């Protein structure tokens, strides 16, 4: 996406060491944003170098977003390093897939804490400086699993559906302060997870997608850039579905 500027903006992206989070962080840097890059276990010094190579300021912060204190620290780092926080992308997520009858409590808690509780905690911390600035943007990365369900993903689907409810509620609460809150629901995106699918399963999945192919991480990054920029200035409380038509209704 060209001619979309985030110049002068500071963005915090959780779970940015790889996958969708990394693609979003890279696209934001290209558009001019300074970055707080969160990772849990995989350092992302190369992503910091990528951003600084474009003339941006960037800092990587290790934090487990399932921990509320870590979420607070992420936002505090943005304020301490850059003096402001304009954009928050709640991207961090995990899966612990199995059928509900076999799902242990720790698998439920781990997914809900990382995928949903983290968004509550980070958004709660971020909305304070955004309210003072009377402006900001929060983007929650949901999933088509949160819209249509998926066998073996009771915990994941519940967390992603919860993000949509959180998005709509925060949009109502924060609109009067100039803060927009939206969600993105990706479909099947080319990733480490989809690359291990055998040919038969891959073909079955592709047959369900009207556009006939997996999406790319850049497709999600471009959607996030639209929502974060002035191009999305009149969009709040929405869930932008980027799935090649997978979930469309007749």
Number of strands: 7
Mean pLDDT: 95
Quaternary structure of the protein: single chain
What is the topology, as strand order, of the major beta sheet?
3-2-1-4-5-6-7
Largest sheet: 7 strands, parallel
Annotated CATH topology? Rossmann fold
CATH class: Alpha Beta
Helicity level? 40-55%
Instruction: Provide the structure class.
Output: alpha/beta
Radius of gyration: 17 Å
Strand content: 5-15%
N-to-C CA distance: 30 Å
Query: Uncertain runs with pLDDT below 50, 5 residues or more?
Result: none
Question: What this model shows, in words?
Answer:
The chain has 250 residues and is α/β, with parallel strands linked by helices. It has one domain: Rossmann fold (3-Layer(aba) Sandwich), CATH 3.40.50.720. It is 46% helix and 15% strand. The chain contains nine helices and seven strands; from the N terminus they run βαβαβαβαβααβαααβ. A seven-stranded parallel beta sheet has the order 3-2-1-4-5-6-7, sandwiched between helices. α2 links the parallel β2 and β3. α3 runs parallel beside α4 and α4 runs parallel beside α6. The longest helix is centred in the middle third of the chain and has 29 residues. The protein is globular, with a radius of gyration of 17 Å. The model has no long low-confidence stretch (mean pLDDT 95).
